[in-house]
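Exercise 3.2. Students should predict the tertiary structure of the chain below and write it as structure tokens, then compare their answer with the key that follows.

Predict this chain's 3D structure.
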Amino acid sequence: MRDNQDIKDQLKKVRQILESKNQIVQGHIKEIKKSYLITEEEIEDNNISTRYNVPKSVEDDIQGDTDEPNKAEQAYRISGGILVIHAETMKDTELTTDDKMAFQETMDEFVSEVSDLVNFNQLNVYKDNVDWSGKIVDFDIDFYFTIGENNGLYITCDMVKVDENFTASMDKLQTFYEKFKSKWAKVIAGRKKTKPMGA
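Answer key:
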């Protein structure tokens, strides 16, 4: 299907333009970002775990829009990926060694077992569930993993040719989801604290 290849070629060209060092192109990109209030943080070393706080003003806006009690969230950059821990208090958002290792292993195993051409979104850890998503570039497929109340593997794609390669990739994705579910269920269980009797 030539149309599919044309689209992929056009996307590649757009990415090349966006990553271009051309001063004119960079000027236009800055104007666009400024007009749409898009900001980016420079990260010097992708191998260092870094804490990012949600700005207080944003938290206040969110709290004003919902009836939920104030919840804390803390994001950590780990080897190029982002792990966000959501909890009732900031104390409960501390990154443990198990969290960090599980996240690193999850990304590495996905690349080796499913696809090495993947763009990961942040992995969210909540009290009773975990969700993670990304895009498998080979097939232009968005995947979404969730464990907890609505656990499952979900995909979104447009007009993908269903052939042996696609079917094999979907089988790998399904198999990896089972591994993901098992690993992150243990992480959730490890993060829960046992309450004292009578509490």
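Discussion points: The CA atoms of residues 30 and 62 lie 28 Å apart. Helices lie at 2-18, 23-35, 56-65, 97-113, 164-191.
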